Structure formats: structure tokens, C-alpha cells
Hints:
The protein is mainly alpha-helical. Helices cover 64% and strands 0% of the residues. It has six helices and no strands. The protein has helices spanning 10-15, 36-61, 63-76, 86-119, 123-143, 150-166. α2 runs antiparallel to α4 and α4 packs antiparallel against α5. It is elongated, with a radius of gyration of 23 Å. The mean pLDDT is 83.
Amino acid sequence: MSDSEAGETDDERRKRGMSPDPILPGQKPPKITVPRPVAISFWLWIAAGVVLVAGQVALLVLKQELTEGILKQIKENPVPGQPADPAQVASGVNTLLWMLFGGALTFAVLFALFAYKAREGTRSARTVLTVGAVFLVLVELLILRGSLNVFLLVSTLLVAIALVLMYLPSVADHFPKVGRTLP
């Protein structure tokens, strides 16, 4: 270790593309200075996950109305050769809603985990959140394009704002690019 590296803070080491000093057992981790946009982004990711789960809970509460609406639509526009069995439709709606709830819960947990890691300055966590945001937008645009799920729209808006905050030039030093040397 050179004299210039001795006594550096973890933030100073990260700006140079180096990892923080290891934490030995019994030592307290150093306090990381989190830029305000990254801190706001963290809470927006948490809020987006909560809104996403709340939207699925709302759909579960409205399960009966959804099932009745689908059955009504099937009666108005029957498919030749395929009779509508109300029990099968109800089972299908129930299964779909629980799968969507599980997916929303998974997204919320992943958003929280990777937002926490991004708040610590982990560049790869920011990348994972970017991929998750793109996936969420694609699901909304390609799969659920006909639905007006307000919860999904709000969650997507929160995710978009959180993502923009993580890529502002003022927070670039918080996500250092780690240099690699080839053997």
C-alpha cells in the first residue's frame, strides 16, 4: 500500500475505481456518503414495489367482479366449439391473479434488495434495477396494454423516476467503474 492510499476513506477509494477496505470481525463498517438523488431513488424503488403489490392485492379483492366480467364477455362473444364453463373461468382467474401477486411480490423484494445495494454504490445493482425496470415497462406495454391498471402505471412511473435519478451525472462517482486488468 502506498502512502497515498493509506488513510483514504472508502468514498475516496471508490472514486479511484478501487473497492472499499475489507471489514474485519469486530470492526464497524464505515459510513458511506450517499448522494441525495440515490437516497431518493432508493425510497422510490421501495414505493414502486409497495404500489405494485398493493395493485395485485386490489385485484385479488376484486376477483369476483373480474370473473363475472370475463364470463359476461364470453357470453357476448362466444367462441364456436368452446363452451364457457364458469368453474374453469373462475379457476383460471384465481390462478392468474395469484401468479401475478407472486410476481409482484418477487419484484418488490428484488427492487428493495438491489436498491439497497445500489444505495451502497454497487454498480451491478444499478444495472440489475435497469433490467428490471425495462422488463416492467415491457410487461405493461406488450402484455397488459389493454388494461388500465392504475397501480401498475404509478409503479412504472416511480421506477422510471428512480432510474433517472440513479443515472444523473452528479452521482456517477457513487457508482465507480472498476478497472480490470487482463493477465
